[in-house]
Write a structure and sequence with these properties.
By secondary structure, the chain is mainly beta. Helices cover 4% and strands 39% of the residues. The strands form eight sheets. Strands 1, 12, 13, 14, 15, 19, 22, 24, 25 and 31 form a ten-stranded mixed beta sheet that branches. A six-stranded antiparallel beta sheet has the order 18-29-26-23-20-21. The protein has a five-stranded antiparallel beta sheet with strand order 2-3-4-5-6, with no helix packed on it. The longest helix has 6 residues. It is globular.
Length: 416
């Protein structure tokens, strides 16, 4: 008899089978740029998909451009360029499943690359704050670099002592992924797959993880995640792109306008790890329920959360009608008033880590040859909550044999 694998419901509460105990840890607080599309840029008034439905227009079928892009540890690296008929194009690397370039037209039709990154593979291999990459096996922070699952305590690699972050010393963005050209709901895209062996960085089970990138005819970049495992494990996948809608290398995003569809955030300790409590954004520097300048929040020295993080680096809880709702919901809206470029982040995930590039210190030379500094970009890392394996009240990140992890995030672009 054939059985159908179950799918982990994104946003669902922790299953009864999952252990409710936690591990005993302290709870202290180069190359040529992307080619232009065949058709000239023009603004469209239509929506990419109706609010609240998750429906998306994906009728365009432009064959991706595929080219060699060096090698890493003896494995060939490839680059894939997807172009829409409405002026957008994106370059994806098989190394780290990186979004290297993302060209978006503004209100005047002029295109700009709106993600931070490097002009060649060497930059991604060297010192790299995860520009544009997919992170796993467990994105974000894990307290004490350990967790308990089904009565067994697992100690994983410590790379942010005494904790673990983004999967350990060698996250998924330090590998060459296997690429495949494919279609997603009528749109041509590229699927990248990485197999993480049992015991990788201390995590149990062999995990097969993939992300499929597709660019719609309406300038929406879609990311579809999928994962399966051979043994019970924990999984949290995200993309760590740094966005600047004025254009990569243009300087600070402090004049960008930001709105979050989030009434709550996960409160953190001095190590920026969630305490397990949800706090309201009301009357805090993290209140973006109505659009406001990013710079206004960064200058709010009265907010202890912002002081600790040296900016915004927080997981916000996406507003949903029910905790187990797994439909596409808008999490964030970002606008550059100068160019008119607008980006909306839609996701099936329960949380989004908003990060204002607080660690960028001017030591990295980016794609355009300019140095990257603090607040030169903002990240929208759609995810399950940080430290979820150690917080029974958080949505589960447990994945078991026979189950499938499926998650979707869409970055939708327009101009006003």
């Amino acid at each position: 008899m054939t059985t159908t694998p179950s799918t982990r419901t994104v946003g669902a509460r922790r299953s009864a089978a999952r252990s409710s105990t936690t591990c005993s840890t302290s709870r202290q607080r180069g190359p040529a740029c992307v080619p232009a599309p065949a058709k000239p840029c023009r603004r469209r008034a239509g929506r990419w998909f109706p609010y609240g439905t998750g429906a998306i227009v994906t009728e365009q079928k432009v064959t991706p451009h595929r080219e060699p892009y060096g090698e890493f540890e003896g494995s060939a690296v490839e680059r894939f360029v997807l172009s829409s008929t409405e002026g957008a194009s994106v370059a994806i690397l098989s190394f780290g499943a990186v979004i290297q370039e993302l060209w978006i037209p503004g209100r005047d039709g002029e295109r700009a690359n709106v993600v931070l990154g490097f002009a060649g593979i060497d930059g991604y291999v060297a010192k790299n704050p995860h520009f544009g990459s997919v992170l796993g096996r467990l994105a974000n922070r894990l307290r004490g670099a350990c967790f308990e699952l089904d009565g067994t305590t697992y100690n994983v690699t410590t790379n942010k002592p005494p904790h673990s972050a983004h999967g350990g010393a060698r996250p998924f963005d330090r590998y060459v992924w296997s690429p495949e050209i494919m279609e997603v709901e009528g749109a041509t895209g590229v699927r990248l797959t990485h197999i993480s062996p049992d015991g990788d960085e201390g995590y149990p089970g062999e995990l097969t993880a993939s992300v499929t990138y597709s660019l719609t005819s309406e300038n929406a970049l879609r990311l579809d995640y999928h994962a399966t495992t051979t043994a019970p494990t924990v999984v949290n996948l995200t993309n760590h792109s740094y966005f600047n809608l004025a254009g990569e290398g243009s300087g600070t995003v402090e004049d960008h306008l930001l709105q979050l569809d989030c009434d709550q955030f996960t409160m953190t300790d001095p190590d920026q790890i969630p305490t397990g409590q949800l706090g309201t954004v009301e009357s805090t520097g993290l209140d973006f329920r109505t659009a406001r300048r990013v710079g206004d929040a960064l200058r709010d020295a009265s907010d202890p959360e912002i002081r600790t993080a040296r900016g915004v680096d927080h997981n916000f809880v996406v507003n949903r009608p029910m905790p187990d709702d797994a439909t596409l919901r808008r999490a964030a809206w970002l606008m550059d008033p100068a160019s008119g470029r607008v980006m909306e982040t839609w996701t099936t995930e329960p949380g989004v880590q908003v990060y204002t590039g607080n660690s960028l210190d001017g030591s990295l030379t980016g794609y355009s040859g300019r140095l990257y500094r603090q607040a030169d970009a903002v990240c929208f890392e759609t995810q399950h909550f940080p430290n979820s394996p150690n917080e029974p009240s958080f949505p589960t990140v447990v994945l078991r044999p026979g189950e499938e992890l499926r998650s979707t995030t869409i970055y939708r672009f327009s101009a006003e």
